[in-house]
Amino acid sequence: MIQQPKMAPPSLLRQLLQLPVLVAALGYLVDMYDLFLFSVVRVPSLNALGVTADRMLPDGIMLLNMQMAGMLLGGIFWGVLGDKRGRLSVLFGSILIYSLANIGNGFVTSVTQYAVLRFIAGVGLAGELGAGVTLVTEVLPTKIRGYGTTIVATMGVLGAILAYFVADWFAWRNAYFVGGGLGLLLLVLRVNVFESRIFETLKERQVKRGDLLMLFSDKARFLKYLQCILVGLPIWFVVGILITFSPEFGQAIGLSAPVVAGKAVMLTFVGQTVGDVASGLLSQRLQSRKRAIRLFILLSLTFVLIYLLAPLRDLSLFYAVCVLLGFANGYWALFVTIAAELFGTNLRATVATTVPNFVRGAVIPLTSLFVLGKAQFGVLYSALGVGLLTVGLALLALYALEETFHKDLNYVETD
Q1: Which of 1-15, 87-101, 201-215, 229-243 ranks highest by mean pLDDT?
Q2: What is the rounded CA–CA span in Å between residue 323 and residue 235?
Q3: Which of 270, 238, 290, 326 shows the shortest CA–CA distance to 403?
């Protein structure tokens, strides 16, 4: 009897470059482009709408908070939908909403219109990352799913960098049109994406799916969910406060020249691109998500202290610190991956979508604390207090979470 030659196992690259991984990565690129475009064009867009210098910070915070409020509500909606109807329903619906909303942002003539459309865009933007990471973790083998989510996160950060260059090449209104157009183009590519087999198998069973109350009905499950959120707080403290309002911090520090917010955002995400790759590879080498994340949180604390307390006077040095802050923020993919891995298939999309959006939404209380403390302690020390709070909570929460690197994801949560 003639033996058939054994088929060689598919290469690592071939396993990684599956259509769901590529489409999730490109989707997050567009998502991050739209999400951070406001940080890049905040000043020129508000100037064009007639906002005076004394209203630039409060109006900017209000618009950012409207976007984050939309992401909070959208995170809940898309997360539940992803577990009830499937991951693909979220990937299609969310990109359509935020693409149309961002095209609408290019037509605004008042701050009120701007706020409404940032809220709608936030609702749409909320679904992209969680659904993408959930799909990637479910279609890839256990040993390499960390590489898959690293690819997704890295492409997303490149989207934030792209936002800077597009806003530099085009007027702010056209930059919004570009983002919306990219999203609609990607919508066409998603037609051929397939659902994960784990979820398809689950649909045939009589199991509760996407039941948000299950996250709160069990004390241990709720604490695990809360701890996932707390681990990501330092990332959005840096992005939502230190970098978005970098011109105000530059002035408080006494820099030799004004800070360009768009450039600070771009450089931060250049650093985060490298950080996402580094943290993903480190996690694979250590075979531990937690150890890699702990290191990056401590790095973030170090660079926050330098940003706020070091006697920086040269603008170039300030921008260099922005790059380092971005690098330390490069555990975003690992943080969302842990959230997806910690919960069963019937709640995985709900958790992976709501957790990053609750972290983003935490910018609302964080900026409120920052503004409250600014009157008494000044810009720098108010930010320092908020930053130390986020790092402390993150480290405590990370310590309590289980390691998920080798965890089998084919399981469900029960009442």
Answers
A1: 229-243
A2: 13
A3: 290
